[in-house]
Structure formats: C-alpha cells, structure tokens
C-alpha cells in the first residue's frame, strides 16, 4: 500500500503550516499545530482553511 501523501496549508490565524492528508475531506475540522486553533477545510484544490465556527451548546434544550 503506498504511503499517504500530504500537503501544507497556511493557518488563517497564525500563518503556521498545517499538514493536510490526502484523505482529508471538505468541511473536516483540523487543528493548527502552532496556535492550536480549530480550522475547517473549506476547499481542497487548492486546500483552503478557515477558522472553524464555534459549536453552540444546547445543554439538552
């Protein structure tokens, strides 16, 4: 089985390099290794990252 390849994308918060595996899908959440910001993959060719929206807590309501 061939090894998985990856590409790098810039974090929109800190401009750090974020490694994106070829298995990564659009709308998936990844984490920046530098600033620990949660990022959403909004495009794949080329890879585009955006700060992930905050999940609203419903607290069972």
Automatic annotation (TrEMBL):
Pfam families: Zn_ribbon_LysW (PF21344). This is Alpha-aminoadipate carrier protein LysW. It comes from Actinophytocola oryzae.
């Amino acid at each position: 089985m061939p090894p998985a390849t990856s590409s790098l994308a810039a974090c929109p918060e800190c401009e750090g390099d974020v490694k994106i595996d070829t298995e990564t899908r659009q709308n998936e959440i990844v984490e920046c290794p530098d600033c620990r910001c949660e990022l959403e993959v909004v495009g794949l060719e080329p890879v585009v990252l955006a700060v992930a929206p905050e999940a609203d807590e419903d607290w069972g309501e």
